[in-house]
Amino acid sequence: MTGDHYFTAEPATAAHPREVGFSVAGRDYALASSGGVFSATRLDPGTAVLLRKAELPSADATGPLLDLGCGFGPITCVLASSAPSATVWAVDVNERARELTAANAARVGAADRVRVSAPDDVPADVTFAEIWSNPPIRIGKDELHQLLLRWLPRLAPDGAAWLVVARHLGGDSLHGWLVEQGWQVERHASQKGYRVLRVTR
Ligand SMILES: C[S@@+](CC[C@H](N)C(=O)[O-])C[C@H]1O[C@@H](n2cnc3c(N)ncnc32)[C@H](O)[C@@H]1O
Question: Which of 94, 169, 194 to probe ligand 1 with, by most ligand atoms within 8 A of CB?
Fold first, then answer.
């Protein structure tokens, strides 16, 4: 028993290597996962809704794209596979999540285009064509707001962020808060209790 959360920087939970399989847009993925990271045993249902309902980058997209809170890297791997020329930044506070994402980027043949980083290691001059996130709601509302206030301004002028949030975990109030902050927010889809939000300037 440990006090680990999935957003712990250095999880003490035993690694227990696992594999998570899923399909998105006709491609099959078999990714490495382990204890101590978010949704270690299956593709999170919210992430599944996001990847099914949001508009994946086109094959000619170059990015840069950001997966904010990459976990073991399912969003990163789908983005890198959908846009085979794009650079994808995969950011997480959890060191084990970063290691897994790097390994999974190699599994999908994108190790040379996926930049796995701790938040403070992303160069300040990088702006993102798209930001994708199943954000860490459980860090608390104030922390979540700080996280979004940190990263959304790094969208390129014509960029878009795709977020998925469970309605019962505050998806609609997050929508309202983003609007109050001056962002354009579209409820792009709603499925299985999850909201998929498209956020632009
Ligand atoms: C809901 S999980 C989503 C993980 C993964 N994208 C997925 O869909 O399975 C959110 C992730 O955000 C990470 N996280 C928490 N606080 C963060 C922060 N301040 N900056 C970056 N990532 C953070 C957590 O460690 C966790 O991996």
Answer: 94
